[in-house]
Every structure is written in structure tokens, then in C-alpha cells.
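Quick one:
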Amino acid sequence: MRRLLLALPFALLPLAIAQAAEVHDHEHEHGSLGAHEHGVGRLNAALDGQTLELELESPAMNLVGFEHVASSDADKAKVAAARAQLEKPLVLFSLPKAANCVVSQQELNSPLFGDKPDTDDHDDDDDHATDGKGSAAEEHHHDHSEIHAHYQFTCAAPGALKTLDLSQVFKTFPATQKIQVQLISPSGQQGVEVTSKAAALNF
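Output:
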């Protein structure tokens, strides 16, 4: 599913890499890798022929307002509502009807959805568990919970995909202040940072 996006993180956005390095320096004492910044989401997009791939990564804080595993009914309702919005990507990403896109693959992952953390994180927790720090490591992971959404669309008329408009993402998840977009399209590659006031970019 990620074939089009494999080269993306290495191809673009030297500015964002520099910014991430600064964030990393600032947050190093907290163990952050720098990519996790509240209010900031990341979107990789690739258009190749009739196939459009979108990969959205966001701190859970941006989408549900917290990053711990939901235990109360109110928190569970927020997680369920966010997941329901993410399960409607044609609406969320405002894909034009003229492009006649249909979702061919869709995958949502997050510790908040009950998914296990990445293997590396899990091994790390196990290592700490032997010296009594397992719970602390687990809490740390939850403090940096992310929500990942991967989509693949088949678009009968890809020529109608003139722009990618993320305004609905900002409206749906108002805690998201900006999204760092890396885009590969027939016209080339670009890295753009979009905000709610300038939420569209050209393919």
C-alpha cells in the first residue's frame, strides 16, 4: 500500500527536517524524537496515474484532545467520534466528486484504538519491566500517542484532482494548527506547510 510513499520522507522538506532537529534538541530531555509536536500533523500524499495515496500522522492530542488510553465513557466517545471522522476520507480530504475517487484501502492505527505500540516500543517496555519501570515506560508511550491513518484511492478521473484541500481536516479537528505536507504528483515533488487559513495546495 505504501509503494508510492516509500521514497517520500527522504525526498523532501529539508526545512522541516531542520525544524524537527530544533524541536528534537529542545525536547531531547523528554525523550521525544521531534516529530511529535502538539498542534502539528503530517501528511504524505502521492498521485500516480489513477492511484492516490494519503498517509496522515498526528499526535492524538490534535484529534481527540488527550493522549492516554480512554477509560471514561466521555473519552471513549471522543475516540469513537474521531475514528468515525477518519473513516470518511472522501469527506475529510474534500476530494472533488469530478475525480470519481473510491477508497480501495484504508487503515487506522493508534494505541487509543487498542492497537499495540510498535515492536521497538514494546521491547523497550519489556526491558524496563524487569527493573520495575515498566509502568513508567508505558505511561511515557501513552504521553506521546499518535494516530496514523493510511488511505489508498482509485480515481477514475485523476485530472480533476487539481488541488488538495485540507480545510475540512482543520474544521473537524480544530486543535490541529498546521499540517506539514509532502506531495508527489505528476507535476513533481513539493513540501508545503498548510494552515486553516491557507489549507489548499496544488497537485
